[in-house]
Write a structure and sequence with these properties.
The protein is built from 11 helices and 15 strands. By secondary structure, the chain is α/β, with parallel strands linked by helices. The strands form 3 sheets. The chain has a 6-stranded antiparallel beta sheet with strand order 2-1-4-5-6-7, with helices on one face. A 6-stranded mixed beta sheet has the order 8-12-13-3-14-15, with helices on both faces.
């Protein structure tokens, strides 16, 4: 899978942009606040329908305008697709080949991207919500069934919390309706857990080797924490989770929230047996995230049969020469890669000589060198 062309209108600091990419390596150069990252963000939005920076959709519309357009031509298995997202005050419209798509689950797995950004370090340093969002976004790109599972689960979780709050404030102790909710709740919860566990297990098959080859250290692993107990028999898992819900009922009712389920999941990075969120240096945290992103390439390819697009935002600015050279070994493959940088001298000459190079200034491409 590759993105052949990207078109932006009234997006961030762009009036109009029409840019064609190489199928292999693309480098976007420019000073800060000139629009480099906006291009990567637009590609990401086109894939998952939301910005990875966590901003409201309306913030993507250029100031003074009423709408923003992101459009691209995607080559997927030798078949061209036109993807389009229009954002305005009423929300957004999503189209594939000019046909409007109503359900998010029918769209997000059509175009897959893996993005590394300096902002990703928040995944390790901040709370579990950001890590669950990461799992949801990545798995949504891999499976439209997962999108539906999470949407259905979140809706049911909201219903459950509202019902137990009412129970706590009233004398109604009839739990028959709660039993109906819980029977559905545990099935959805176990299915979500299954997707997440499989994904983490597959990451762990690769992440240690990648981290060692790039950073020079071994034993990086991700540990997944859940209050759902794994068992080879899915029925046993469902039964055990149902029992946990019942045991937690009084606590749930008192607090007006549900303490059991995948909405409480978390995962941590361990290096040499230690949680790097507590003991790791900034460099180690950055390399751990990068190793995770590179491990995803193989997982995405295995799931979908085609390779994702790799987006690397300002990746070379904090790497020493050794780590840069090690990383090059992973970039030089058949994955379409788009890199941003403020200084071309930060990027190895061998990379530059085999890349399409774009210079961005003030929301415009002011020069382009095609080396492919």
């Amino acid at each position: 899978m590759v993105i052949k062309k990207l078109m932006l209108k009234n997006y961030r600091n762009y009036d109009d942009l029409d840019i064609s990419f190489s199928d292999r390596l693309n480098i976007i150069i420019g000073d800060n606040a000139q629009g480099k990252t906006n291009i990567l963000e637009a590609i990401y939005v086109l894939a998952v329908t939301k910005s990875y920076l966590g901003v409201n959709d309306k913030n993507l519309i250029k100031i003074g305008y009423k709408f923003s357009l992101i459009k691209a031509v995607i080559d997927k298995e030798d078949s061209l697709k036109n993807l389009e997202i229009v954002i305005n005050d009423n929300g957004k419209k999503i189209k594939i080949n000019n046909k409007e798509i109503k359900k998010l689950s029918d769209y997000v797995s059509n175009f897959r991207v893996i993005l590394f950004s300096p902002d990703n370090i928040r995944m390790i340093k901040e709370g579990p919500g950001i890590r669950r969002r990461f799992l949801n976004v990545e798995l949504s790109q891999l499976s439209n069934r997962y999108v539906k599972l999470v949407n259905d689960f979140n809706s049911l979780l909201k219903q459950r919390n509202e019902f137990i709050r009412v129970m706590n404030l009233s004398s109604n102790n009839d739990i028959s309706y709660l039993d109906v909710i819980d029977s559905k709740f545990v099935q959805l919860a176990v299915d979500i857990y299954g997707y997440r566990k499989k994904f983490i297990d597959q990451v762990n098959e690769e992440i240690g080797n990648i981290y060692e080859k790039i950073a020079g250290f071994s034993d990086l692993v991700i540990k997944y924490h859940s209050n759902i107990d794994y068992d080879d028999d899915k029925k046993v898992m469902i039964s055990n989770l149902y029992d946990k819900l019942k045991k937690s009922f009084d606590k749930d009712k008192n607090y007006g929230m549900t303490f059991t389920g995948p909405h409480r999941d978390d995962f941590y990075f361990y290096l040499g047996g230690k949680n790097i969120s507590l003991y790791g240096s900034q460099g180690q945290l950055r390399m751990a995230i990068l190793a995770l992103k590179l491990a995803e390439i193989g997982i995405f390819t295995k799931y979908s049969g085609d390779k994702p697009i790799l987006l690397l935002d300002d990746i070379f600015s904090e790497l020493d020469v050794t780590k840069k050279n090690r990383l090059i070994d992973y970039i030089f493959n058949d994955v379409q890669t788009i890199i941003t940088t403020t200084d071309i001298n930060l990027i190895d000459t061998k990379l530059v000589e085999n890349a399409n190079v774009f210079v961005i200034s003030g929301g415009k491409v002011i020069s382009q060198v095609d080396n492919n």
